[in-house]
Amino acid sequence: RRPPRSTLFPYTTLFRSETRPTMSADQSLQDRDFGRILLIKPSSLGDVIHALPVLHGLRLRYPNAHIAWLVARSFAPLIANHPDLDELIEFDRRRFGRVGRSLSVTADFIRFLRRLGRERFDLAIDMQGLFRSGFFARASRARTRVGFSDARELAWLFHTHKRSEEHTSELQSH
User: Concatenated DSSP letters for the chain?
Assistant: First the structure.
């Protein structure tokens, strides 16, 4: 059995030049400096824990960056005091599951999305690979949005840069 993708996410090689075919090599992420970074791994206890090395790797690579993590409210206490994390953005999955069925919930969700957009992130990393997480990456208004090339539920539509499964295995050898 393969380890979960989040444990293999290539934080050490995340910023190589693999991009959409329309992007040129000089638009590589490898040498870019990001000041505001958003990690998107909202749910699943195991996935959140396995994503912690990504947070640490980003902190090592960008020691002065502001790093935020969008996570489900139920998992927020697990990472709330992590020394590599500057901000926790809680997503109330249970409440927001009623979007469209409750006017007040829909209004709260719109306010949540607006807040996300006002954060002015330079980089959003979708580590979930689902429509919802890709949508949040786009809602963050980050110009650079990285996700898995095999993302499900059309999440790839929201990404500007994609990482393939082949590149995720590079961590196993490090």
Answer: -PPPHHHH--TTTTTSS---TTS-GGG-STT---SEEEEE--S-HHHHHHTHHHHHHHHHH-TTSEEEEEEEGGGHHHHTT-TT-SEEEEE-HHHHTTBTTBHHHHHHHHHHHHHHHHT--SEEEE-S-SHHHHHHHHHTT-SEEEEETT-STTGGGG-SEEE-HHHHGGGGG-
